[in-house]
C-alpha cells in the first residue's frame, strides 16, 4: 500500500495537471448552476407573489416543488461532464496508484444478487443503486467493492410512498481463505450495549437469524453479535486472531460495520452516510485534502485483505 | 377456581420450560463433544498418510514415526475412556508439532507436493479441532451457568446435574515443543 508521502508526490506530478484541466469544467458547471438559479428563483418568487395576491394558498407549495425539481435537473446535467471527467481522470488513477491489479468502473456496482446473497440485511430491497466499482486481485485474494445504496419502500393509508434506507456505504466482497459450508453473520451489537445481560437474552431469541454464537473475546463480543447455523464452523471462521483483527478494523474505520461469511466468501458492509468519491462543485478541487480523503476511503477497502490476513493460505483452500 | 387452574398451569409450564432448557444445554455439550471426537478421528486417519510421506525423507526420526503410528493404533482401537482419549490426544498433538518443526531440516520434503497438501489438511483439522474445543467450552459455560444460577439451579439440583469441566490446555502443551528431547529418546 502506498504511503501518504508517495501519494503527495503522485498528486504533485500526476494528479495536479489533470485536476487543473478538470477545474475548468467545474467552474463552467458552477456558473451554469448559478446563472440558472439567478433566473429561476426570481421567476418562482414572482409567480408566488402573483398566486398569493389571487388568494390560491395551496399553489404556493407546488411552485416551490416545481422550482426545486427544475434546479435539481439543471444541477444534474450541468455537473455530469465534470463528474465523469473527475472520476475517470482522478479516481481511476488513484485506484491504479494503490494497486496495478485493480480495475475501476465508474458506473458499475456490486450486483443486487450478491448483496442479497450476503444475508446481512433481511429487508426486501425495492431500490438498489450504486457506483464506483473496483475489482481485482490482491495477492491470492479476489476482491470487489463499490458504493451501494439499498432502500425499501412503504406506503401509508393515503397511498403515499416513502423510501427508507436499508444500507448506504461501501460494500466489499472477497474470497475467504478457509473452506466452509454454512453461514455466519456478524452484526453490530446494539441490544447488548444498551440492555446488557437482558440484551444477550433477547439476541438468543432472535431465531430468525440462526443460533446466537457467544464468543470468548470480550472486546469483540461488546462490539458485535454473531449468528450462525453451526456453532463450530462459526468459531472455525472467527479464529481468535480474526476476531482481534476485525475489532481493530472497526476501531480504525470508526464506522458501523457488518460482516457475513457465506458461500466461501467474506462480505463486509461499511456504513457511510455521505456520498463517497464525489467531487465538490462549489469549492475548488485543486486541493490535496479531498484527494487524501478519497485515497483513505479506497485504501480502507483494499487493505481489508491485509488487515484480515486473507492472503494466508495455509489451509486446503488455494 | 379457574384462576387457581391458570396459576397451576402457569407454574407447570414454567417447570417444563426450565426442565427442557436444562436438557437442551446438556445435549448441546454432548453434541459438541461428539464433534471433537469425530474431528480427532479425522486427524488420526491422516497419520498413516503423513508417516508414509515423510519416512523416506526423515532418516533421524524413525523412532518418533513408529511411536506415533503405535499411538494412532491405540486411539482408533476404541475401548478408551474420555480421560484417556484426551491424554492420548495431547501426546499426539505434541508429537505432530514436533514432526512439523523437524520438517524444516528437510528442504526436499518441504517442497514435496504431497506433503504440502497434507500439511494444509492438517492445519485445517487442527483449526477445526480448536474451534470445536472453543465451542465445547462455550456450551459448558452455558450449562454451568444454568446449573448455578437461579431459578434453573433449583431444577438442576433436583435433576442431579453437576458442573462440567471446560477444556484446559495442559501446562506441558503451553510450553514450546522441545524437538530435540522429542527425537533423542
Task: Put the structure in a nutshell.
The complex is a heterodimer of chains A (318) and B (185). By secondary structure, chain A is α+β, with helices and mostly antiparallel strands.
User: Under CATH, the topology of chain B is which?
Assistant: Helix Hairpins
What structural category do the secondary elements of chain A indicate?
alpha+beta
Question: Which pair of chains has the greatest number of interface residues, and how are they split between the two chains?
Answer: A-B, 15 and 19 residues
Low-confidence stretches of chain A: none
Query: Considering DSSP H and I runs of 4 or more, what fraction of the residues of chain B is helical?
Result: over 70%
Categorize the overall geometry of chain B. Answer: elongated
* Percent strand of chain B: under 5%
Q: Count the helices of chain A. How many?
A: 10
The ordered H/E elements of chain B are HHHHHHHH
Radius of gyration of CA atoms of chain B, rounded to a whole number: 23 Å
Total strands of chain B: the figure is 0
| Unreliable parts of chain B | 170-177
Tell me which oligomeric state these chains represent.
heterodimer
Largest pleated sheet of chain A: 9 strands, antiparallel
Report the β-strand fraction of chain A as a percent range. 15-25%
Strand runs of chain A, count: 9
- The shape of chain A, in one word, is flat
Structural class of the secondary structure composition of chain B?
A: mainly alpha
How would you explain this protein's 3D organization?
The complex is a heterodimer of chains A (318) and B (185). Chain A is an alpha+beta fold and 318 residues long. In chain A, 49% of the residues lie in helices and 23% in strands. Chain A contains ten helices and nine strands. A nine-stranded antiparallel β-sheet of chain A has the order 1-2-3-4-9-8-5-7-6. Chain A is flat. Chain B has 185 residues and is mostly helical. Chain B has a single domain, classed as Orthogonal Bundle (Helix Hairpins), CATH 1.10.287. Helix content of chain B is 79%, strand content 0%. The longest helix of chain B has 53 residues, at 2-54. Chain B is elongated and about 85 Å long. Classes of the chains: A alpha+beta (318), B mainly alpha (185). The interface between A and B is medium-sized, with 15 and 19 residues.
